[in-house]
Amino acid sequence: MRRDPGRGEADRPVTEAPSPSEKGAALGRGIGIGLMNTLWKPRVLGAWRVPASGPVILAVNHSHMIDGPMLMGTAPRPVHFLIKKEAFVGPLDPFLRGIGQLKVDRSGTDRAAITGALDVLRAGGVLGIFPEGTRGSGDFAALRAGLAYFALRGEAPIVPVAVLGSNDRAGRLVRQLPALRGRVDLVFGEPFRAGEGRRTRKALDEATVRIQERLTAHLDHAKRLTGR
Question: pTM of the prediction?
């Protein structure tokens, strides 16, 4: 059974991976801007809601593999994403590390990933998380406690982000990708706090419920706003 990060687990020294590079994340943002705007037509709403400085977590729904790169290319600040270790294969491994992304082993408590994510927040950076843990229906129906842990431990506000249209099947030329030059909507919500201070199991559970309510409400609002 998967265990979510608990109190004190990120305090242990971890040497498996260096801290993610802010310059690398900025480079990744530049690549994302060029790639996403060339292949598709992203429509970005509410990006001004992302705090201009300080630690922040972008909590993103996830229904397609381009959701992460799409957000990297449209967010107003460089983003360090927690990405499953299975993506770090062959030449993608040094590339993803080079653009400041974090490898996470989803089969257990990955202390190196936890430490790296907290390093991003302590340095005042932006951490990107798919709170459902994996690609699915993209409706925030099944949240894990990791998002609440990082929000509480990193003392970071959460900005909900709805990515809509990336999983549309109409007009596809390549089965795995949305239609080229198709519209993808990215809607940024109001930042909010998951809670304050405590990191007990009860506090994490309560924060997770609170987060899920806010993310689901934002997704519903984004669908109404975009007509998706």
Answer: 0.84
